[in-house]
Amino acid sequence: MPYWLENLSVYPLVLLSIWLLGSLVLLPQDYQPLTFFRIFAKQLAAKVHPDPHRATSQQLISGSLALAVVMLPTLALLAPLYWLSDWPLVLDGLLLYFCLDFVYYRQQSHKVALAVSQQQNSRAKDLLQPLVLRQTQSLSSAGLCKATIETLWLRTAKQWVGVSFWFLAGGGLAAVAYRLLLLCNQEWNDKQSHFRYFGRPASLLTQWASLPASLLTALLLAFLTDITGAFRQWRQALSLQLCLPHLLILGALASALRINLAGPVIYQQQKNQRQRLGPAQLPAVRDVLNALRLNRQFQLYSAFIVFIFSLLQLLWLLY
């Protein structure tokens, strides 16, 4: 029986422990191992994808091979460590800790809200730009707040719930594989004209891999806040030019905060028209703070659910 399957019952407790550790001990971004892979992905793309005008098939092939170069050697190096380690669960915990780098983004979101409240929009744009793909220089105060709220919750779904989901499903290696996939998709995002085809393999795989986490996030958020309003938003917004997981999350969030989300965004001077979602009320600083507060509550409820699940699992094993 595979190692991860033998220890499946222990994974919820490991997950809870790392959630607690990650909230108390934040690893600086300069010492985050994922920073190395981010730099490597950028340099790899510059080397194997110098010309975005090549044939589409060539770009798709090179994008697929680049994704394999980032992920497969890393997983191949990590897998033997489980055979050599006397404490494989500790290794699982370490890998999960390095993959869960979400607290940094919540801190940055709070800094953006503080800068906007002090009418320092230029500083807020500089703080927000590394977190989003969209252009921030033309954003108003409401636009900055909207972008901050959206990226906070979309990253919650993908980088916190998604990593945790794949850890429970397949252990540390599955969490690492999923996190590297997210990283490549962020660096080679196909919304950028340069990576329109080169980044498509990573984008498609990311959409499928993050789908369970996005559905869980949207449903739990709706149950915790306003499930009737969330379903109303989902039903009225089927024509939005958003992928389904983003639509579900933003619909539940717009209903919970009673604010307007989605709408047009600009990527590399190119305007992407999206319909607006939710009430007419534009986001303000207080809504960013409410989104942060709701985010913490969401994580606490998630921890409670995992704890109850692990307790029931323990009782099942005992009896």
TrEMBL record:
<dbReference type="InterPro" id="IPR004485">
    <property type="entry name" value="Cobalamin_biosynth_CobD/CbiB"/>
</dbReference>
<keyword id="KW-0812">Transmembrane</keyword>
<feature type="transmembrane region" description="Helical">
    <location>
        <begin position="12"/>
        <end position="28"/>
    </location>
</feature>
<feature type="transmembrane region" description="Helical">
    <location>
        <begin position="160"/>
        <end position="181"/>
    </location>
</feature>
<feature type="transmembrane region" description="Helical">
    <location>
        <begin position="300"/>
        <end position="318"/>
    </location>
</feature>
<feature type="transmembrane region" description="Helical">
    <location>
        <begin position="202"/>
        <end position="224"/>
    </location>
</feature>
<dbReference type="GO" id="GO:0009236">
    <property type="term" value="P:cobalamin biosynthetic process"/>
</dbReference>
<dbReference type="GO" id="GO:0048472">
    <property type="term" value="F:threonine-phosphate decarboxylase activity"/>
</dbReference>
<dbReference type="Pfam" id="PF03186">
    <property type="entry name" value="CobD_Cbib"/>
</dbReference>
<dbReference type="GO" id="GO:0005886">
    <property type="term" value="C:plasma membrane"/>
</dbReference>
<feature type="transmembrane region" description="Helical">
    <location>
        <begin position="60"/>
        <end position="84"/>
    </location>
</feature>
<keyword id="KW-0472">Membrane</keyword>
<keyword id="KW-0169">Cobalamin biosynthesis</keyword>
<keyword id="KW-1003">Cell membrane</keyword>
<protein>
    <recommendedName>
        <fullName>Cobalamin biosynthesis protein CbiB</fullName>
    </recommendedName>
</protein>
<feature type="transmembrane region" description="Helical">
    <location>
        <begin position="244"/>
        <end position="267"/>
    </location>
</feature>
<comment type="pathway">
    <text>Cofactor biosynthesis; adenosylcobalamin biosynthesis.</text>
</comment>
<comment type="similarity">
    <text>Belongs to the CobD/CbiB family.</text>
</comment>
<keyword id="KW-1133">Transmembrane helix</keyword>
